[in-house]
Amino acid sequence: MTPEQTTELLQALNHHDWFLVVCGIVWLLGTILQFLIVAKVKSAIENKQYFTHARYDKEMEIYQKVWPKLVSFWEVIFYADVSEAGQQDYGKTRNEMIEAIRMNKPFFPKEIWQEVQEVQKLCESKRFSELLLRFRELNDDEKKNYFESSDKIKVQLDKVEEAIRNRLGKFD
User: CA of 67: how far to CAs of 27, 47, 61, 98, 156, in Å?
Assistant: First the structure.
């Protein structure tokens, strides 16, 4: 309220001009209410921005942990060493990947979680087929799936990468 408006209000009170007094009080209450609403909205926006930033940071941290594990697992599968040493590398890499995924599962967005699970499933299927080859001949469908599996895994890894990029793009 400006000094002139305050002076007019006081003069109106002295002259018992109730209309001006009521208008002044309504204006004052409206100004206070407007200030409170603006402060509440501003606070809500700041809170949302803070949590969005915190969520972005957490997701980025998760992707930086999980992505190398996925790629390492894919490489172990791709190079398909089924020797004893290869089995140990496979087991170690698989366990590291599963641990990284399991420990961060609650923080994965659903769309990325599904893509990551699909990579794991395809890798496991390929490895199982390789182990079967040691004991028996694969049938035609199994052979076809086996020979296509490397490409499917690579395509699925690309889908995970794209899903992560899309997810992080939502924060822009």
Answer: 59, 30, 10, 12, 13
Q: Give just the sign of the alpha carbon dihedral 61, 66, 72, 78.
A: negative
In sequence order, the 6+-apart residues with CB closer than 8 A to the CB of 168 are 56, 59, 60, 63
- DSSP state string for 101-161: HHHHGGGS-HHHHHHHHHHHHHHHHHHHHHHHHHHS---HHHHHHHHHHHHHHHHHHHHHH
User: Number of folded domains in the chain?
Assistant: 1
Taking the CA atoms of the chain, what radius of gyration do you get in angstroms? 32
CATH code at position 162: 1.20.120
pLDDT tens digit sequence for 34-91: 989 989 999 888 888 888 888 888 888 888 888 898 888 888 877 766 666 677 788 8
Domain that holds residue 100: 3-169
Both tokens assigned to 17: 């001009």
pTM of the model as a whole = 0.61
d(CA 101, CA 97): 6
Query: Token digits for 26?
Result: 């309504």
Q: Are 116 and 101 in contact (CB under 8 A)?
A: yes
